[in-house]
Design goal:
Mean pLDDT: 91
Number of helices: 8
Low-confidence stretches: none
Shape: globular
Strand order of the largest sheet: 3-2-1-4-5
CATH architecture: 3-Layer(aba) Sandwich
């Protein structure tokens, strides 16, 4: 029934893995990214280079990979006061959430993605949200996204499926999934050409990828890669 998908592709590790997951399952896949004034805007450049390399290295996937869309959502950055949209230290707020939480971000991303998908005849939206290794963001929770799926379907009067293949995976399992989908070559591509560091640091390359090595995103990626390296994916 569902043969086409739109992947929320930021240029980071998780969304790159989700893109491979979608290409492995659907006959036609398009991608969407968002410029919301993020400090780590370097991820937007990584999107382009990763897509180009993916097409070159995986011809079978290239045949399925359709248009890429980049939306200007800088208004979100203008109304946000967070460590992802402002030059401020990363810390926890009184609410218990880190100040890297951008209120409404994923809700808006999926809503705009659904509007685009509706126009282009795509019925599946794929996102890299995760409730296992995450910072407690309420818009990453499974319950939030299941509720949003219902709301989008009602609001568009069209069946819209939200897929979150990483929801119950930790970072080590996410690395293993990438290897299962595309082999060691995909793992290397994710290391070299994606970006996950909150500070946008592309000056230092580690075994797990580029980043400052100190922010919460880098810490999660580093620990996950170390665990994955000890026990890589089982061969298919």
């Amino acid at each position: 029934m569902h043969t086409s998908a739109l992947v929320l592709f930021s240029g980071g590790q998780d969304s790159a893995t989700c893109l491979a997951w979608a290409l492995d399952r659907f006959g036609h896949v398009e991608t969407i990214g968002f410029d919301y004034g993020q400090r780590h805007a370097v991820e937007l450049a990584c999107r382009t280079s990763f897509l180009q390399s993916l097409r070159q290295r995986y011809p079978a996937w290239s045949d399925k990979l359709g248009d890429d869309h980049l939306l200007d959502m800088t208004l979100l950055g203008q109304i946000s006061d967070t460590a992802l949209t402002q030059a401020k230290a990363i810390e926890f707020e009184k609410s218990g959430l880190p100040n890297t939480f951008v209120p409404g971000r994923n809700l808006l991303f999926f809503t705009f993605a659904a509007a685009l998908a509706y126009r282009r005849g795509l019925s599946v939206l794929v996102g890299g949200m995760c409730e296992t290794d995450y910072s407690g963001y309420p818009d990453c929770r499974d319950d939030t996204l299941k509720s949003l799926q219902v709301t989008l379907g009602l609001g568009l009067d069209a069946r819209m499926v939200l897929e979150t293949p990483l929801m119950w995976l930790d970072k080590a399992a996410t690395w293993r999934l990438a290897e299962q989908l595309g082999g060691k070559a995909l793992v290397d591509l994710i290391v070299e050409q994606t970006h996950t560091c909150y500070l946008g640091d592309r000056s230092r390359l580690h075994a797990w990828g580029y980043g400052c090595g100190e922010c919460p995103a880098c810490e999660l990626r580093r620990l996950g890669f170390a665990a994955y390296a000890k026990r890589p994916a089982d061969p298919r």
